[in-house]
Amino acid sequence: MAKPGWPALTLTEEAKPSRSMNSQTSRTTCTHKMAESNKGKVVLVGAGPGDVGLLTLNGKQWLQKADVILYDHLVNPDMVRFAQKSTEMIYVGKKEGIASIEQEQINHLLISKAREGKIVIRLKGGDPFLFGRGGEEIQAVQKAGIPFVIVPGVSSVTGVAAYAGIPLTHRHLSSTLSIITGSNEKKQGDIHIDWEKIAARSGTLVFLMGARKLPLIVEKLMKFGKSPETPIAVVQWGTTARQKTWTGTLGTIVEISAKDKILPPALTIIGEVVNLKPDIEWYEQLPLFGKTVVVTRKGDQADSMIDRLRELGAEPFFFPVIETIAPDDWSPLDNALNNLSQYQGLIFTSVNGVRFFAERLKAIDQDIRELKGIRVFTIGPKTAEAVRDLGIRVDVVPEDFVAESLIESIGKENIKGKRFLIPRATVARETLPEQLRKMGAFVDIAPVYQTILPSPSVEALEKMLKEGSIDVITFTSSSTVKNFLALTGDKLLPEIKKAKIACIGPITEKTARDAGLIVEIVPDQYTVSSLMDAIENHFPS
Q1: Per-residue b/e over 369-397, b at no fewer than 16 CB within 10 Å?
Q2: 217 close to 207: Cβ distance less than 8 angstroms
Q3: What are the Cα distances from residue 46, in Å, to 153, 385, 404?
Q4: Among residues 107, 93, 170, which one has the least CA distance to residue 136?
Q5: pLDDT confidence of residue 79
Q6: Per-residue model confidence (pLDDT) at position 184
Q7: Closest CA to 526 of 406, 439, 438
Q8: Which residues contact 184 (CB under 8 A, 6 or more apart)?
């Protein structure tokens, strides 16, 4: 069964017979056998405790190369944006002790997919060697003669504690740290640890996966000598916007847990360091902490929004509703590029227009020096920046980042009889070319890209909308509004209206309002950065 938010794909694959083997050294420190006949390998990647920002750079790079990803329950689905569109996603997670498939099947999948010559990523929450089964899985892979790589992850032990504002060690309070499992997969039986020895330790105790066993943990620790006054913290959904922390003592935490119904996933920290939380807590104090914000921008343009939202403490929900591809016909642009001398002005209305224009220029072996003498106009600072990155000077960027403002700027010049080229989307507003023609200019439109409707999974978004856990939905163009509503359908419109709608500018706002949405957030300047500021300012600190 696929986890909501990830593509649902098959779990069955017959293993191919292994072939001849020789000895080679992997990128790990160990030497092991590998198959001569293919380049398949297994990469064990620690995904971190929840926040995508805690995925390591090495882990991200492997996700970008992956042919297959086997992922666990607690892995943030937002990591799918780092993978290729063609990557096969297989859910093999376990929730509350119940596995979706057995461990032997997981091992079989790792081996069989690698024998097909594929890069197989085993993506595990936290660090895969800390109360995971990373060691067991790699042993199976190594025995089968499959090359492997191990990429450690940020453990929930350190990551969750840091996000909760609790240092696990402190020069004056704790010089030792004990990490203990709080669960037993054998039908919720007793935890097989030496309670007397654990209770006697004076430093910090951290129990993983122990939310349901909290009464037992407390009972055993106090039975073997821990004071009822010992500070304790339980952190649920640590490092995510859903993070919640309860503090108390061994004598009070069970009652608190029963009252507030603390459920997994949760991390339990016991020791004097818990008392430092009021001085050090930071994550839960961020301006957008606890808010979930839907990002509808296309994948390669969403990173800046997602990064900024995380900086503000929000949980971005990546739901791309637009994709750009090359136009069906390049001839209008090619004809224009072969006759650049006839143009006095070149107008870029978007970063996408700049990117596809530059790619086509390169593809037909044209030189940007051919643009010498042509005045360049752009809408918006990001578009201007993209043009400058090509080594082309931008002559005019209007104050307001809409076509109407550019028309006003151009209108200050005598453009009668002059010819302009506008590389743009196949379907776009006609305001700009129409007004320029009214002013006496000649305008050629050259489609350089087209927008299409992608097919993201709506299941997770629908679930969150119905639960009321979506706080803000962002739109950065009219196309994102139209495509979002097309993907979600009329049945979700009542739930969508319960969220705050944030639009990048007046054109997008009008599209949203015409569709029946109530727009509450629009920045003064029509940029992504200003949109983020407007969202932050909308919510009281």
Answers
A1: eebeebbbbbbbebbbebbeeeebebebb
A2: yes
A3: 4, 36, 49
A4: 107
A5: 87
A6: 65
A7: 406
A8: 190, 191, 192, 213
Following DSSP, what letter does each residue of 238-270 receive, concatenated?
TTSTT-EEEEEETTTHHHHHHHHT--SSEEEEE
Contacts for 534 with CB less than 8 Å, ≥ 6 apart? 502, 521, 522, 523, 524
| Residue 479 backbone phi and psi in degrees, to 5 | -60, -40
Confidence at residue 30, expressed as pLDDT on a 0 to 100 scale: 40
Domains and CATH numbers, the chain: 21-154 (3.40.1010.10), 158-285 (3.30.950.10), 292-322+454-538 (3.40.50.10090), 325-451 (3.40.50.10090)
∠ CA 101-124-285, rounded to 5°: 125
Tokens for 196?
Answer: 């007397």
The confidence score (pLDDT) of residue 407 equals 81
DSSP assignment letter at 317: E
CA distance 232 to 275: 9
User: Quick one: which H or E segment has residue 120?
Assistant: strand 119-124
Please list the active-site residues. 72, 94, 209
Alpha-carbon Rg of the chain, whole angstroms?
A: 28
Q: Which amino acid type is present at position 296?
A: T
Q: Look at residue 415 and give its three-state secondary structure.
A: coil
Whether omega for the bond prior to residue 265 falls within 30 degrees of 0, making it cis, is yes
Determine the Cα–Cα distance for residues 293 and 502; give it in Å rounded to an integer. 10
Candidates 274, 264, 250, 147; CA nearest to 208 is: 264
CB contact set of 430 (below 8 Å; sequence gap of 6+): none
Encoded amino acid at 517, one letter: L
> Degrees (nearest 5) of the Cα angle 520, 524, 527?
95
Counting as low any pLDDT under 50, the low residues of the chain are 1, 4, 7-37, 187
Token pair in block for residue 486 = 């097309």
